[in-house]
Give the backbone structure.
Amino acid sequence: MGQGFPPVRKAVFPVAGMGTRFLPATKVMPKEMLPINDRPLIQYVYEEAREAGIEEFIFVTGRHKEMLEEHFDHQPELESVLQARGKDSMLDKVRDSEMPAGRLFLTRQPKALGLGHAVWCAARLVGAEPFAVLLPDDIVHAPEQGCLAQMMEVYRARGGNVVAARDVPLEDTSKYGIVDHAAEDGPVVEVRGLVEKPAPAAAPSRLSVIGRYILQPEVFAQLEAQEAGAGGEIQLTDAMARLIGAQPFSALRFAGRHFDCGGRLGFIAANLAFGLADPGLAPQLRGVLDGLSA
Ligand code: G1P
């Protein structure tokens, strides 16, 4: 112990977004509370961060998002009802969705100025140490090891900044941050540049960043000074791009399946995948799917 790079103890969860793509479902309910199988999106990213060793969970929240903090709170009435009814496995699930005291931190993003601005809103809570960012829109099904835990291994070996990445069809480059990378050397590649949502003709590669980042605190100074980029928003991608060269920067082609749950297709696909991976549900769900496709 005592050697190597400083540990990543804190994770930032930008959860201020409005979720317009799911209206009217998200008129009153935060999009991060939409369920995949038996858990809301936000719980998947919380569990992934917890598995990776994260100790402090920082929500960058906004108006009408109180349900998110409620979800992770202790619910004594519910627990006593489940206990009285002998519903032990349900009780275990409820307890597992509770955050231990002193681990949840909240800050607000008063205006929707972009992902970079949302992350910057957590600067004072993060301080001068490396941190993770997890976007609840991006759900990764990785039964053996969560995506952030895989990234932590890269961080422990190389230090600096690490993003999770996957290859997308060329026509999809305009939906993601795209990596300009050096020669392929297996799942980990050295990042040479990053471009936010380039048109296919301008894309340096097909390697897209998904919403998992391990970042050095120097990114906050970049965000602080930054002007709006693609889409008129303050982009995290632009701030990260300015760290390349000054700090190690790696992209990991993680093991697992990614679902873009910011839209209905990815969300429905995620529900099917997690349902089929649930032994209590899979046989009947297969029957339903067979029936629908007959
Ligand atoms: C954000 C980032 C983008 C990244 C994507 C992953 O975009 O700006 O670089 O590829 O998340 O989901 P958004 O989906 O918020 O438009």
